[in-house]
Design brief:
By secondary structure, the chain is of the alpha/beta class. Helices cover 41% and strands 18% of the residues. The longest helix has 24 residues.
């Protein structure tokens, strides 16, 4: 099923010529390179409360899938994923470079999944965009142990950049007729990771899943930034990879997908690409 899902996503479009990230089923499976999809002609939908994808539209996509794989494979795929809760399908972490370089293809891929009744949950980063803004403001991007040191000026710019990139993805989806909800806060609750060392960087201690589930109930794809807040309301910066992982721990989706420009996830010590991910580790 995981392999067929990958093939459908790959055939539906060619995503990220530079490569895509790792796919892992929870709790553990072999990860593989993934390519989400574009689809053929997309019809614009009215923004009323939806009961699900348009029936004729879904039938057209099903026919397309039958032309890609065997009848048995397609029915197994559709039966498997249509039987799970919407929020149980996949958490997808999208790197900032994907939004800047492949926005149209990404939006088309997410739209394709939504057309067959799935609600991928997106958590995105904006690292390259933030570095450009910091450089323009003559603020040095500083790192310690691979973690961005986030002082007050850096956080202020980060909030603007995250909000801007979030809007870009939401608007790209809505231009394709796919309802999407920008979620720039209220999901991740965090404490300071190490205030003296990293300043305003957070360690997630709780995930408010209701915000995400409310979006799905309303028929909207949840598009999240990785910014978190302390119980007192202080905004903290959190790495988007980590935020996606914490969200997946709570929602327990069938898949967690990492899309980036580096062709996968790599071990911090060995430098080798990670082939298998276990979310409990």
């Amino acid at each position: 099923v995981a392999r067929l899902c990958y093939c459908i996503m790959l055939r539906a479009s060619r995503f990220l010529k530079k490569g895509a990230g790792a796919i892992a089923r929870t709790p553990a499976v072999a990860a593989s390179a993934a390519s989400p999809s574009s689809h053929s002609r997309i019809q614009t939908r009215m923004y009323s409360y939806p009961s699900g994808p348009d029936t004729s539209e879904k039938e057209t996509i099903v026919k397309l899938l039958y032309n890609i794989g065997s009848k048995k494979e397609v029915e197994q795929y559709l039966g498997h994923f249509s039987s799970v809760e919407s929020q149980k399908f996949a958490v997808i972490k999208v790197g900032g470079a994907v939004i800047s370089d492949d926005l149209a293809t990404l939006a088309s891929a997410l739209t394709f999944l939504n057309r067959v009744g799935l609600y991928p949950i997106v958590v995105h980063g904006a690292g390259p965009q933030l570095n450009k803004r910091l450089e323009a403001a003559n603020i040095e991007a500083r790192y310690e142990d691979g973690i961005r040191i986030t002082d007050g000026p850096t956080l202020a710019i980060a909030r603007e950049v995250f909000a801007s990139e979030n809007r870009k993805l939401v608007e790209a989806l809505e231009r394709l007729g796919t309802r999407a909800r920008p979620i720039t806060g209220g999901v991740f609750v965090a404490d300071y990771l190490n205030k003296e060392k990293y300043d305003r960087v957070g360690k997630i201690v709780r995930v408010n899943r209701e915000v995400v589930e409310s979006s799905i109930r309303a028929g909207c794809l949840p598009i999240l930034t990785s910014l978190a807040e302390t119980p007192e309301g202080q905004i903290l910066n959190v790495n988007a990879d980590i935020a996606a992982g914490e969200l997946a721990r709570v929602l327990e989706p069938l898949k967690i997908v990492y899309l980036n420009e580096k062709n996968g996830l790599y071990h911090g010590t060995t430098g080798k690409r990670i082939e298998t991910i276990h979310l409990d580790e």
